[in-house]
Amino acid sequence: MVLQKGITYMHEHTTIDLSRLKNIDDTNLNCFDETVAEYKKLYSKGVRNIVDVTNMDMRRNPMYVKRVSDETNMNIIQATGFYQDKFLPEFVTNHTVKQLTDFMIKEINEGIANTDIKAQIIGEIGTSKDMMTPREKKVFEASVIAQKETGIPITTHTTLGTYGHEQIDFFKEHGANLCKIVIGHVDLTGDIDYILHMLDQGVYVEFDTVGKENYQPDLLRVNMLKEIEKRGYTDRVFLSMDITRKSNLEYMGGIGYSYLLDKFVPLALENGVSSKFITKMLEENPAEFMNRGLKK
Ligand SMILES: [Zn+2]
């Protein structure tokens, strides 16, 4: 089994450094002790798995993540793949689709970046705002082939929720297994019809920016979840927070990882989302998604 029984945050970054483009130290999430403290707190609340979608070139650090896992007992799933265009390494420009595929398959079968830590998810592979650049297309093509060969799931990044429908069209055209794909950041669309159309196609979706109220109020997230529940799509939604900044953590006065369980879940329950649906999003759906089709 990939996941342990318990709650799973499906889209996080234990350590990530986007500071070279964003030009602020805050976007270098490298506060080891504070992350350990928060993961321990999550563990005490029943969280057992974190799916860490950090990849090249978000300055991933698989050994750092492993040390956090060792210190907290948290099962942290690590990823292979490449992000959206402006963060892509030259590596992607210079390599063919076949070379990118081989790179990912090696990280899945042997280990990430010369460690023996095997990638268990491909992602977060991204598209830019309202478009897929030629380099992103290469990454998507390689990811579909790597998925077909290894059977592991794909998780995507949409920029502010845009281009999600086109990502799905791409996966369909390339014969990818839609029930092994989750489209990320869909809550940022704020558009329930847009999300329902995705669910109609057979993919999973993530409300993975919970607590980022500067983008979207949580009450809107809750209202969209209510509608999804009404339409009967409760089996294919995950929740997460996508914490990427030091200032998101409690020691800096941020909301911290526990916000999802301590604040968002009560808000959802108060406003009519069922506790059954909450349990599905936090526990059952991630397990179904990550463990599906694996040899026991
Ligand atoms: Zn993302």
From TrEMBL:
A divalent metal cation 2 binds at residues 124, 157, 185. Its cofactor is a divalent metal cation. A divalent metal cation 1 binds at residues 11, 13, 124, 242. SUPFAM superfamilies: Metallo-dependent hydrolases. Keywords: Hydrolase, Metal-binding. It comes from the Bacteria. One of its GO terms (molecular function) is zinc ion binding. Binds 2 divalent metal cations per subunit. Pfam families: PTE. InterPro entries: Metal_Hydrolase, Phosphotriesterase. Belongs to the metallo-dependent hydrolases superfamily. Phosphotriesterase family. This is Phosphotriesterase-related protein.
